[in-house]
Write a structure and sequence with these properties.
The protein has helices spanning 2-23, 26-30, 34-100. The protein is built from 3 helices and no strands. The protein starts with a helix and ends with a helix. The mean pLDDT is 76.
């Protein structure tokens, strides 16, 4: 499954790289044709969207998942070590101390 996802990421990044260089060529810059400029704008918008999506997918999403896992682990630790009653007591004490301080 991971190899399949990696293959598609490589394909999308490769397509974006090739399209980016095609859109940035000087020949396209020299053309005064409105359709060529419109095409270039569409390509650049697509590349910006790909960059934002890949940035979210590869950087932000794993950090969000790790943050949620860490929060669940911290909340669950008193219950793991002391059982359900002890976990309740520990978290009640922590909440009372936080409200007092």
């Amino acid at each position: 499954m991971e190899a399949h996802i990696a293959k598609w990421i490589i394909i999308v990044v490769g397509f974006a790289f090739i399209t980016y260089h095609f859109a940035r060529t000087e020949e396209l810059e020299k053309l005064e044709d409105p359709k060529a400029k419109q095409f270039k704008n569409k390509v650049m918008f697509f590349l910006g969207s790909c960059k934002n999506f890949l940035s979210f997918l590869l950087i932000k999403l794993p950090l969000i998942i790790l943050g949620i896992a860490l929060a669940i682990t911290i909340i669950a630790l008193p219950f793991i070590f002391t059982g359900p009653v002890g976990g309740f007591v520990i978290w009640t004490c922590i909440i009372i101390l936080v409200k007092i301080l």
